[in-house]
Design brief:
The protein is of the alpha+beta class and 466 residues long. It has 3 domains: 152 residues, no CATH class; 84 residues, Helix Hairpins; 153 residues, Heat Shock Protein 90. Helix content is 53%, strand content 16%. The chain is built from 11 helices and 10 strands. Strands 4, 5, 6, 7, 8, 9 and 10 form a 7-stranded mixed sheet that branches. A 3-stranded antiparallel sheet has the order 1-3-2, covered by helices on one side. The radius of gyration is 48 Å and the shape is rod-shaped. The chain starts with a helix and ends in a 6-residue tail after the last strand.
Length: 466
């Protein structure tokens, strides 16, 4: 049992004890000193308050009937004696000699037919002893002793016994407190066990549906735990995949560098040509490492974007101007169709890199002689930038993988497959969205290119400051 279990259990019992104590204290304070001495039941107090009215209404016969009924009532907590002027009881019962000095009695003098009668209520200190006597007499009349007039007192139901009531309260309280403590402590123990198992099970621990199906705070906590564990596990898997892909991508240029070094040693005359190739491989390796570092920082959140007002139309002008030369070398036509003035709150460097990666990705994979269209337009509070081409497009099953790191739909082209991954994370840093879809022929028979759409929250219009 954990500490939480005992805390709930003790808190429940402490509250129960305090409640009993408060009720008892208030009950004592609400009674007068005389009532505290007599400890009369509500039935006895009611009779004393209305005794004279009862006698006036029915006289001595009514009083006799009332006393007899009181005598026969098994649940009466007081004994009612009616004494005449000589001190004899109305029903001929024995009157204790110390009736006048007993502090647990209550006396009241009433008038009946012009004669004074003394009503005495005596607390039955031996009430349950009389009950035990009655049981013994019924079981063995010879050993029970002499009977009182009218036989043994009738037995009250056992569930009115104070000990039974006390035991019932204790048992039900224990059951309720144990159930309540278990209800709160059990899910905490399961969470504790699951947390301790996370390292051993490589963050694949999942709480059962019994926990996640609860409709209280513990159920919400269990669902959050499962979601957290799953996200951490996916992050670990992504990290391992990233390490594997980085190792694979670094191996190729390093292997070529080693090969070139071996060729130079065998043929020193080809040193200049070999150095040119070494320089090209080193540049490619540097670009690869730069993209990996950028992606890693964006993925881990280490890069804190410096948001500022960025004129996107100027970025697109610069990117398209630089990319036009590369497109012409591939016999492609790059056109910036429309480019309205628009300002976006973003990190200028990250946004520039995102747009450049998408444009250069279109140039790289559209193929020779392709037409590449860059279109920017303002739609309400959004700037929509569309980069499309009339190349071969992408297989439909590969479209969801385009923004995955190190994924390349066309393995024949150079590159490490990080361009669109970096663009995705860079666009997200400024609150934007990016997606890709195929363009199709009018009859829908085949893909007719690829469209990449970027949506950015912005301010548009010709009234923007230049």
């Amino acid at each position: 049992m954990g500490q939480l279990f005992w805390k709930f259990l003790l808190a429940f019992w402490l509250a129960l004890i305090l409640a009993f104590g408060a009720v008892f204290t208030l009950n004592q304070l609400s009674q007068s000193p005389e009532q505290n001495r007599a400890l009369l039941s509500p039935q006895g107090r009611f009779f004393l308050q209305n005794a004279q009215q009862l006698i006036d209404a029915g006289g001595v016969p009514l009083l006799r009937t009332l006393v007899q009924n009181w005598q026969d009532d098994p649940m009466a907590r007081e004994q009612l004696l009616v004494l005449d002027a000589t001190g004899a009881d109305l029903l001929g019962r024995e009157v204790p000699a110390d009736i006048g000095q007993n502090p647990r009695t209550k006396h009241l003098v009433v008038q009946a037919a012009g004669q004074p009668l003394q009503l005495v209520l005596v607390n039955k200190d031996n009430f349950w002893q009389q009950r035990a006597f009655a049981i013994k007499e019924r079981l063995n009349p010879r050993d029970a002793g002499p009977r009182e007039r009218g036989g043994p007192p009738p037995l009250p139901p056992f569930w009115f016994h104070p000990l039974f009531l006390l035991m019932a309260v204790i048992v039900t309280s224990i059951a309720a407190s144990l159930g309540l403590a278990w209800y709160f402590a059990a899910p905490v123990r399961q969470l504790k066990t699951a947390l301790s198992e996370l390292p051993q099970r490589q963050w694949q621990t999942q709480l059962s549906s019994e926990m996640t199906g609860r409709r209280d705070e513990f159920g919400a906590l269990a669902r959050s735990f499962n979601q957290m564990a799953q996200q951490v596990y996916q992050a670990i898997v992504s990290q391992r995949r990233l390490l594997h892909d980085v190792s694979h991508e670094l191996r190729s240029p390093l292997a070529r560098l080693q090969l070139l070094t071996g060729l130079v040693r065998q043929q020193p005359a080809d040193l200049d040509a070999a150095l040119d190739k070494v320089e090209a491989e080193a540049a490619r390796l540097d670009q690869l490492v730069g993209e990996i570092l950028t992606f890693s920082r964006l993925e881990s959140g280490e890069v804190q974007p410096r948001l500022e007002a960025v004129p996107v139309h100027e970025l697109l002008d610069s990117i398209c101007a630089d990319a036009t030369l590369e497109a012409e070398n591939r016999q492609q036509l790059l056109v910036l169709v429309q480019n309205p003035r628009a300002v976006v709150q973003a990190d200028a460097e990250l946004l520039y890199r995102a747009l450049e990666n998408v444009v250069r990705n279109a140039i790289k994979y559209a193929g020779s002689g392709a037409f590449i269209r860059v279109d920017s337009q303002c739609l309400g509070a959004e700037l929509v930038v569309q980069i499309s081409d009339n190349g071969p497009g992408v297989a439909p099953e590969l479209l969801p993988l385009l923004f995955n790191p190190f994924f390349r739909a066309d393995k024949s082209n150079d590159g490490v497959g990080l361009g669109l991954s970096i663009a995705l994370r860079a666009v997200h840093t400024c609150g934007g969205q990016i997606r890709a879809e195929n363009l199709w022929l009018p009859d829908g028979s085949a893909a007719a290119g690829l469209l990449v759409e970027i949506r950015l929250p912005c301010h548009c219009g010709n009234d923007l400051p230049s």
